[in-house]
Design a protein that fits this description.
Radius of gyration: 22 Å
Number of helices: 13
Strand content: 15-25%
Order of helices and strands: EHEHHEHEHHEEHEEHEEEHEEHEHEHH
Structural class: alpha/beta
Oligomer: single chain
Shape: globular
Distance between the termini: 28 Å
């Protein structure tokens, strides 16, 4: 678990490009409701990014994809093909999506000054979705993309002649190690510490965004999704998501430490623990709608969450289908742990089994209306999304799994 003594994020002043003078403040001010001709997106080939690209295209927005991969257009096309989009959309991709090879971890995104300024002047909206989501990485490994990358995107929107709207993808897990109560959209408080370096890096990035908005009186949309999932089976041409990565780590550890036989392990959790799993398709729909909505000035933060939570026991059941484990929940770590129990207890996601917090989404619902998705996220849904084929039938576990 990461300590609560997070690094103070130094923010070098970014001097926005002067605009034509109008009004008492001396700068052109445009409505926070954006009439878009150009939307740039980072992380366009990631798990969320691909779905957001799809939603924005369906809503008739042309895109500029800021990517490191020169083959990104092919990856986007393959994704759209796999999810069943019509051939007319696939055929239009070379006209609808411009690829700009760039790297958010580098100043000016690794572009020349001329190319950087041209890009800044060409966009009306920037969706910053690029992030390293490796939960087992340390903070110094995550900062170049998650923190420095955010700083470099702020430099881009600062330089733009059109004062582009920044839409920043954060995470509901900036709430850190706080396990109980209600987390409000207006809150950003690191005093409880963090349960892994990923949470801390995203907290630092969101802090940068808030400071920039306040300093330069700019409108920013911050979206905080919960745990993104899907019921679409894994595919070699699709990116992995958190549950797939977590299952692979647990399976590898169990096999390395205990072999292939099903092994009993004791894990720390709370019997009333619950988590919020959000279908990535719905997350992308909400983000696309936020792009087109009218927002008040300064930072508007929105929790993007599913309408119901899921018992942590469902997550335990899910992990048992992926790894040769028989998991038993306890309120505290046993005095003597096996090597596998010690590994699981040190995992960056171990504390999730004790989560009982809830994410308030009043702003999101007030702006977009209540969720209307009929999807029920449960064990069957989550199992479909990881292609779960049990390693061996797990023994029944007593307790509520709803």
């Amino acid at each position: 678990m990461s300590s609560g003594r997070h690094r103070a994020v130094a923010f070098a002043p970014i001097r926005p490009r002067p605009q034509r003078r109008t009004g008492s403040l001396g700068f052109a001010r445009r409505s926070a409701k954006v009439q878009m001709s150009s939307v740039a997106i980072t992380g366009a080939t990631g798990f969320l990014g691909l779905h957001l690209v799809r939603e924005l295209l369906v809503r008739n927005h042309d895109l500029i994809a800021l990517v490191r991969d020169p083959g990104a257009l092919d990856r986007i096309a393959r994704f759209l093909e796999l999810v069943g989009e019509p051939s007319r959309l696939l055929d239009a991709l070379p006209r609808r999506i411009s690829i700009v090879e760039s790297d958010v971890s580098l100043p000016m995104l690794g572009l020349s000054p001329k190319a950087f300024q041209r890009l800044a002047d060409d966009v009306d909206v920037v969706w910053h979705s690029a992030a390293s989501t490796e939960l087992h990485d340390d903070l110094e490994s995550l900062r170049p993309i998650n923190v420095d990358g955010t700083r470099h995107i702020l430099e881009l929107v600062s330089a733009g002649q059109r004062r582009p709207l920044l839409c920043h993808v954060s995470t509901a897990f900036v709430a850190g190690a706080r396990r109980e109560g209600v987390v409000y959209e207006s809150e950003l408080n690191g005093s409880a510490g963090f349960e892994n370096a990923y949470e801390e890096s995203k907290f630092e990035a969101e802090t940068l965004v808030r400071d920039w908005s306040r300093r330069y009186d700019r409108t920013v949309v911050v979206a905080r999704p919960s745990i993104l999932v899907t019921d679409r089976p894994p595919h070699a041409d699709l990116p992995m998501h958190t549950l797939l990565s977590l299952g692979q780590i647990m399976r590898d550890a169990a096999t390395r430490l205990c072999g292939t036989s099903r092994t009993a392990v004791r894990v720390v959790g709370h019997p009333q623990g619950h988590l919020n799993f959000l279908p990535v398709e719905r997350a992308a729909q909400v983000l696309a709608r936020l792009t087109e909505a009218e927002h008040p000035r300064r930072v508007s933060t929105y929790h993007v969450v599913q309408g119901h939570d899921v018992s942590v026991r469902v997550l335990m059941d899910l992990m048992e289908t992926l790894a040769p484990l028989q998991m038993t929940m306890q309120s505290a770590a046993p005095a003597e742990q096996t090597a596998l129990e010690a590994f699981l207890d040190r995992s960056p996601t171990a504390a999730m089994l004790s989560h009982r917090r809830r994410y308030d989404d009043t702003r999101t619902v007030s702006l977009l209306g209540p969720p209307t998705s009929p999807i029920r996220v449960d064990l069957d849904y989550l199992s479909a999304g990881i292609g779960a084929a049990p390693v061996a039938p797990p023994a029944p576990r007593l307790g509520n799994r709803s």
